[in-house]
Amino acid sequence: MAHGLTGKESTSQKLDVDPAAPDATRHGSDATSVSPARQFNNFDLLRHTLAVVVLLCHVNWLTKLESFRSFGFLSSDFAVKGFFTISGYLVAQSYVAAGSVRRYAEKRIRRIYPAYFGVVIFCFVAGALTSTLPPSEFLSNPAAWKYLAANLAFLNFLQPTLPGVFALNPVQMINGSLWTIKVEVGLYCSVPFVVAAFRRLGPLKCTAGLYAASVGWVLVFRSLESTYPRLAPALAHQLPAQLSYFVLGILVAEAALPKRVLAPIAICSSVALAGLSGSLFSPVIEPICFASTVLWIALIPKLPKWKLPDVSYGLYLFHFPTIQLLLALGVFEFSPWVGFVLAIGCASLLALASWTFVERPTLRRDSLYVTSSHTSPSSS
Questions:
Q1: CB contact at 8 A, 265 and 291
Q2: What is the pLDDT of residues 309-359, one digit of tens each?
Q3: What residues contact residue 30 under an 8 Å CB cut-off, 6+ apart?
Q4: For position 243, what pLDDT does the model report?
Q5: Please, what sign has the CA dihedral across residues 190, 192, 197, 202?
Q6: Among 300, 340, 224, residue whose Cα is nearest residue 38
Q7: In the prediction, which pLDDT does 13 show?
Q8: Is residue 94 a contact partner of residue 7, using CB atoms and an 8 Å limit?
Q9: Which position among 63, 207, 263, 354 has the lowest Cβ density within 10 Å, counted as fewest Cβ atoms?
C-alpha cells in the first residue's frame, strides 16, 4: 500500500544486473533503461484503480448503509494484496538500481514517510478539532499522545483510536488503512536479503521456500482461529503472510515472464481457487491467483496511457479518515450519495495536496516520480 502504491521504478531490469554498472541503473535517476516492449505498462493506472477499490470498500464498511451494499462485490483484500505484488515487482528493481543499501533506504524513506507522517498529523489535528472532549482535555489525555507516537512509528495496532473521536460512528478506528504500511516497510527491509537469496539459490528455489514459509504462517494461524478467535486472525494478516505476494512479484520481474504465461496461470489458478473457496487450503493457491492476475493486467501493453499526478498513495492514506469525518459530521446521514461524492472529492483533493506539497518536494530531483510528471507516467 506502498506498497505497490509507492514503488514506481523501472519495470525491465532483472535482479542479476551488475550493481557496479556505470549507467542510470547505478547512478542518477530511479529510472533504469527499459526495453521497447515494456517501456509502457499499466502500473500507474492499476495502482490508482486499486486505491479506488479500497475506498469504495471502506465506504461500504464504515457507513453500514444500504445505499452502498452493492460495493460489497468488490474486494479490498484483492486490492491490498495486489499492491504487495506490484511492490515486489517494482521495489526489488529499485534496490538493484540504487546500487547500495544506503541509497535504496534513502529512496524508500523519501517516498513513503513524508506522506505517512502528514496523514498521521492530519488525523491528530482533525481529531482534536472534532473530539467530543474539550481541546484541553483531549490534549491532556495520554491516549492522544500514545496514538501520535504509536502511529508515527508504524505501530498502529497499539492505539488505533483517539479519545472522543468518531465515538458515534459505526467504527471508531481513525485510519484503518495504515496497518498495511508497516507490512510494506517490513517487506522493504527484506529486499536486500531476498535479492541475495535469489542470486545464491536461484529464483525458483528461493521463491518456493519463501512462498512455503509465508503460506505456512497463514495456514497455522487459520487453524487456530477457533481457539484464539481474535488473536489468530490478526496474526494471520501480519508478516510474513504477505511475503508470498511480494516474492511472486520479484520472481516475475527477475524472470521477465511474458504475459502469455501470466494469463494461463491467472485463469487456471482462478478456477482452482474457486474450487477451494472457503477451504482451509485456499491460501495455498490465492497468492498465485492474485499475483498472476495483477501482473498480467499491469503488463498488457495496449491499455490507455495514464497521465495524471501520482495521487494513488495519498488517496490510499487519506480516504479512510475523510469518510470517518464526513460520517461524524452527519453528511452521510443527510444524504448517503452527497457523502459519497464529498468523500471521493475531498480525499482526492487531500491526495493531490499531499503529492504537490509533501511527497514530490521531498523526492530527489532525478526520481522517476518527479520526472514522470513531465512525461508519460505509464512508464513505471
A1: no
A2: 889 999 999 999 999 999 999 999 999 999 999 999 999 999 999 999 999
A3: 8, 9, 10, 94, 97, 107, 364, 366, 367, 368, 369
A4: 97
A5: positive
A6: 300
A7: 43
A8: yes
A9: 263
Cis peptide before 240 (omega within 30 of 0): yes
Helix axes 203-223, 243-255, angle to 10 degrees: 160
Interacting residues of 77 by C-beta distance below 8 A, sequence separation 6+: none
Tell me which residue has cell 518536494.
Answer: 361
CB burial string 70-97: b at 16+ within 10 A, e below? ebeebebebbbbbbbbbbbbbbbbbbbb
Q: Compute the Cα dihedral for 134, 174, 168, 325 and give only its sign.
A: positive
Q: Which residues contact 367 (CB under 8 A, 6 or more apart)?
A: 29, 30, 107, 110, 111
Phi-psi region of 304 (alpha: psi -120 to 50; beta: other; left: phi over 0): beta
User: Which residue ranges of the chain lie beneath pLDDT 50?
Assistant: 2-3, 5, 7-13, 16-39, 371-380
Q: SS3 string of 68-85? A: HHHHHHCCHHHHHHHHHH
C-alpha cell at position 315 = 488517496
- Distance of alpha carbon 29 from alpha carbon 88, whole angstroms: 20
